[in-house]
Description:
The protein is an alpha+beta fold.
Amino acid sequence: MGFKTGMMAAAMLALAGCGQADDGAAAPDKAALPDGPKAEIATIDAANLPEGVRAVVLAAVPDIEISGAQRKARDGMVFYDVEGSRGDGSEVELDVIDEGGIYRVVEIQRDIAWSEAPAAVRAAADVAPDRFVPARVIESTQTDGSVIYELFTVDKPDEPTAEIDWKNGDAKLRTERNAY
Length: 180
């Protein structure tokens, strides 16, 4: 067994030994979600963003320096993933939906370390029989104030393997993918 595989196995065993959260709810059958619909993706230079997209992004994060974007068409919806950095240098991504030429920010995202996720979020992931140590975690703040934690595996870097809802201190594994 290689070093990387051994480290992953050790991390999985360490997680298996952790106490499980007991909030009275039944544990989900599994953490892994089925694959989502494929998106048609086009890269867009920051200078070529539709003005309406730029306006809502700047309204949400006034100090953003936009570095680039992607236009995604998926499941009958069109989104713009706008990437950049805040004035303090931290990276941020805003997902903007195109609703017939009216643009709206639907979530603001940032990458975090798994250890930075709230304890209840980590515990919710730990109760699933197919639990795993995420290789990447995106903290995705929704417009209603809730947060979705998107958990990625090494072998599936483009789509989250699992998602966890976090609101008012409660964490719950999602059984369906977030539309955004």
